[in-house]
Design a protein that fits this description.
Layout lengths: L1 H8 L11 H4 L8 H26 L4 E5 L4 E5 L6 H4 L5 E12 L5 E3 L1 E7 L6 E10 L13 E2 L3 E3 L3 E14 L8 H17 L9 H7 L6 H8 L9 E9 L6 H6 L6 E6 L5 H5 L4 E2 L1 E2 L7
Antiparallel strand pairs: 1-3, 2-3, 2-12, 3-9, 4-8, 5-6, 5-10, 6-7, 6-9, 10-11, 11-13
Length: about 300
């Protein structure tokens, strides 16, 4: 029984209280062994909960933009009470571009505007277009009216996408005469015609081509050329374009730190060998895309 009392009182074999470390250590309780495992499990659960909260509610909007190669070009020559005073000679150049915008973030995203910058590498003429309307299938039907709706800001919910056909209309050209109203251009032609028919009896002409042959350096020649070279895309032409997007300014530090902007998209479109008079009538022309490997 001595060994029992020694063990119970904590007296080692040497007779001293506490005994040797080698005797008591194996019988000491292992405090904290299960607590560490529980801490690891709790921390792991917290990390996954935080990640889930980020992905489902807090993640900033992240937009990806896709443009197919099925781009359509036309000259909008429609005349109404208002456009009669603002429509340029030859009509507005219009690009109909199918656009898909996907939001992989959790928060909603707003797209305020879409801008298209175009350049004709052969003529050097540049132009800026903006998203002015959206159109559906009825717009591309043969004949009849071409219904379209004014473009408005897009709100793209988290984990969703927007798809539509956007009509881009010109807002400016490097040629300052390109958007001169057709009425003004017609009046200019009439004034030149009257001037040279009555004031230069020896230089009679029946067309402006004859005038250019007989008086190649007449003072109005530069202005006339500006009116004639007012389109960024013509028969067998190529145009290099960049599509940009405008989003609202960041509203807080989180938006400024983690918010992203859609990257510009660069493309090259080519006009097929189609008679100019068909384009001038406002017919829809499908452009060839130099960026689409599937194009024939």
């Amino acid at each position: 029984m001595i060994w029992f009392w020694q063990r119970w009182l904590g007296i080692g074999a040497s007779g001293e209280a506490g005994g040797s470390a080698n005797e008591t250590a194996p019988h000491a309780p292992r405090a904290g062994g299960g607590k560490g495992l529980a801490t690891v499990i709790s921390a792991t659960a917290l990390v996954f909960s935080g990640f889930s909260l980020w992905e489902t509610a807090l993640k900033q909007a992240e937009l990806s933009v896709y443009v197919t190669g099925d781009v359509t070009y036309e000259r909008d020559v429609a005349a109404d009470e208002f456009r009669e005073y603002v429509r340029p000679a030859g009509g507005f150049e219009v690009f109909a571009v199918p656009v898909t915008i996907a939001n992989s973030g959790a928060r909603d995203a707003a797209v305020l505007a879409m801008l298209l910058e175009a350049k004709n590498p052969k003529t050097g003429l540049t132009a800026r277009f903006k998203a002015s309307y959206t159109a559906d299938d009825a717009y591309f039907a043969n004949g009849g009216a071409k219904p379209k709706k004014p473009f408005s800001a897009l709100i793209i919910a988290g984990r969703s996408a927007w798809t539509g056909t956007v009509l881009f209309y010109p807002v400016s050209y490097s040629n300052g005469k390109a958007l001169t109203p057709a009425r003004t251009v017609a009046r200019f032609y009439q004034d030149v015609q009257m001037k040279y028919r009555f004031n230069y009896a020896d230089s009679k002409f029946s067309s402006f081509s004859e005038l250019l042959e007989k008086l190649p350096d007449f003072p109005e020649r530069a202005e006339l050329s500006a009116y004639e070279q007012s389109k960024v895309l013509g028969r067998n032409d190529k145009v290099e374009v960049t599509l940009r997007f405008r989003r609202p300014a960041p509203s807080g530090w989180l938006d400024r730190v983690l918010g992203t902007q859609p990257q510009p998209i660069s493309m090259t479109w080519e006009m097929p060998d189609i008679p100019g008079e068909r384009v001038a009538r406002g017919e829809l022309v499908r452009l060839r895309s130099a960026n689409d490997d599937l194009e024939p």
